[in-house]
Amino acid sequence: MRAVQIATFDGPDGLRVVDVPRPTPAPDEVLVRVRRCGMNPVDRSQATGRWNWLALPHIAGSEISGVVEEVGALAGPLRRDQRVSVAFRVFCGRCHYCLRGREEACNADPHSANAPIMVGLPSEGGFAEYVVVPAKNVLPIPDGLDLDAGCVAVLDGVTAWHETERAGVGPGDHVLVTGASGGLGTFFIQFAKLRGAVVHAVTGRAALAPRLRQLGADTVIDRQNEDVALRARELTAGRGVDAILDSIGAGMFGTNMQALAPLGRLVICGILTGPDAQLNLAPFYAQQQQVIGSTGGARRDLEAVLDAMARGRVQPVIWRHFPLDQAADAMRALDDPGRFGKVVVDVA
Length: 348
Ligand SMILES: [Zn+2]
Known about the structure:
This protein is an alpha/beta fold. 25% of the residues lie in helices and 25% in strands. Helix 5 runs parallel beside helix 6. The site of zinc ion (ZN) has 8 residues, from loops.
């Protein structure tokens, strides 16, 4: 089968299009013919060596939709040619957290304290014509929903859904969304609106403001030309925002804390601008604020996102498609200043 491997930790330049043997599913696994695989910042992090214990060559790709090709003997009721999304988080099903329905917190893998363990990390992923995945990760795509939606729901949809829940976003809350034009941000805006919030979208790409408003943002803050914390306070009569949905990390941390209201929750699911931040504990405890980590989500989160999409309550936002043999260009496209939403690789 054709596949794109990370051959060296040189980012897009280290990717190679190769022919490798088609994998065979174990009894509790499913062979999926990949049709779409989203390009995610986590793929670039792999390709640039953030997890240097990763054995090369390696096939990344964690946002998979496709068609069931072969079902292992113990893999349950799935059938060939069924259209499916692959829940991206790999979990054991037996640990303290899995037994409580918190698959995203599974700590069975020794690397789980510092890496999201997922289809494509460290197992082989979806930038290939076929991928073998645990049967328990395979969910049917509802009728009427296409493979594009089934793909972008998998990681960004689930991560944003879970984070919005962890933030406890409720009706009337003022919510700040950072990185608003990205794959996660476009979901954050929609999920916060579903919960009845007033949404303030922060972007470095002011030209995209009309599209952010179309998605539901009540206001757009241009972080290149405006003081984000000051604007957040102006928009809330000086109070600050009740919740912040962030995937940017250290680069926004100080600003985010200045923008946060008493009882506010800052939820962080990524470190695109680095991991190390400083927290002034004086205003933090006096205002009873919370800083909350969030990562991925469980299968029930994927079901919820697919359902919201099937009902037309949430739109998948896809910016560009690339063929598999241009996966390197798809990875470079993550940094394109005009990008709005997801970059998706079409396989087959
Ligand atoms: Zn577990």
